[in-house]
Amino acid sequence: MSSGDFSSVPILDYSQALSSSTRAKFIADLRDAAINVGFLYLSHTPVSPELTQSVISYIPAMFNLPEDEKERIRMRNSPHFLGYSKFGAEFTKGQADMREQFDIATKHECQWKEGDPEYRRLWGPSQWPAEDLIPGFQKTLESYLDQVQHLADEFVTILAEAIGLGPDGLSKFYDTAEKMQHRSKVVKYPAAAGPSASTQGVGPHYDAGFVTILLQASDHEGLQVQNLQGQWIDAKPVPGTFVVNFGRAIEFATQNIVRATSHRVISPAHGTPTPRYSVPFFHNIGLDVRIADPAWKLEFPQSVLAQRDARGQHTSDSVNFTEFGTEASGHVNLIGRVKSHPDVAQRHYPELFKRYFPDGLPEHGVAY
Ligand SMILES: O=C(O)CCC(=O)C(=O)O
Ligand SMILES: [Fe+2]
C-alpha cells in the first residue's frame, strides 16, 4: 500500500525495527500505516507474552469483585478520574456505552499544588482493589503497564523517524519520566442484553493523545476502524499482537500527517456466552504542552507532506478533542474527562462542572 484508502489493518513485525537489516522496511511500513490507516497491529514486541497472559487471566476476577469493593474504588472518589465505572455510566454521541471498566494508570505522585493549573490534578495514584480479594493482581498489572510504557516510549522514537524527523523528533512533547503518567483501562463488554438491545460497546470516537496500545484480551470481534470513505473495517483480535492507533494530539502536532482514526466497539451478539475484554493503554504527552504554540511546531520533509496530501481528507462521524488548536494538552484532557464523568467533576472540579453542566448533573456523561 503506498497511498489511498484501506480495507484492512496492516500487521507490522516489531522485531524488524530492532534489527539493522530490516529496520528500513519497518520504518517504511510504519510510515504508510501512520499516514494512510492510523491503525496497525504490532507483533513480536518486547512485552512478555507470559505477563500479558497473566493480566488476561485476572480480568474475569476483577469484574467479579464484590459490589461493595467496586463501590469502594469507584472513580467518583478520585480527582484523577481513576477507578471503577459501572456498566453504562459513560455516553458517546448521546448513547450509553455498553461497557464496565476500571481506569488504572502508571505509578505517579500528584504534583498539583494550590495555584497551579487545575489540569495538573488530573494525574495521581490509582485506586487498587484489596490485595486479599485478588492476590497478585496489582503487581502483575503494574509490571505489565511498565513494559507497555517502555514499548510505547521506544515506538515513538521509531515513529519520529518514520515521519521524517530524527529519533528525538517527538521528545519535546514529553516531560522527564517522573513527571509523566500514562493511563490504562480494563474493559468488559458483555453480550447485548436482547435481540434488539443496543450493541454500542463504545461509540465512534478518537483517542486524545499520541499513541494507544491496545490489548484485545479475548477472542471476540467487535473493534472496528473507519476508513477514508467512512466504511467500518474490522480489527479482529490477532493472537500475539497489540493494536496500535494514534490520537488527536499527534494528528494536530504532525499537521495531519499521522492520522487519528475513528473507531468503535460493537458488543458481542445477544446470546454470546462470554464477554469481550480489552486493555487499552494511552501513552500521554506532557500536560503543559500547547501543540499550537511555535515552541512545539515541527518541520517535515517535502516527501512526507506529499504522502499526506496524496491521502486526502477523511470523513468521520467521531466526536471530541478539537481544543488542541488552542489549549494546553492537560486542559483538553481534563475537559474530556469532565464531559465523560460529570459525577466525578461535580465533586472534584465544581467550577468546570458548572461551566459544562449549567443545568446540574445529567443522568450520564455526554461525550467521550
Ligand atoms: O475496547 C477496545 O477494543 C477499544 C476501546 C477504545 O477504543 C477506548 O476505550 O478508547
Ligand atoms: Fe479508543
Automatic annotation (TrEMBL):
Keyword Lipoprotein annotated: no
Domain of life according to the entry: Eukaryota
Pfam families noted in UniProt: 2OG-FeII_Oxy, DIOX_N
Keyword Cell inner membrane: no
InterPro entries registered for this protein in UniProt: DIOX_N, IPNS-like_FE2OG_OXY, IPNS-like_sf, Oxoglu/Fe-dep_dioxygenase_dom
The entry's keywords: Iron, Metal-binding, Oxidoreductase
Domain Fe2OG dioxygenase: 176-285
GO molecular function annotations of the record: metal ion binding; oxidoreductase activity
Assigned protein family: Belongs to the iron/ascorbate-dependent oxidoreductase family.
Family annotation (PANTHER family): 2OG-FE(II) OXYGENASE FAMILY, PUTATIVE (AFU_ORTHOLOGUE AFUA_2G00750)-RELATED (PTHR10209:SF885), OXIDOREDUCTASE, 2OG-FE II OXYGENASE FAMILY PROTEIN (PTHR10209)
Protein name: Clavaminate synthase-like protein
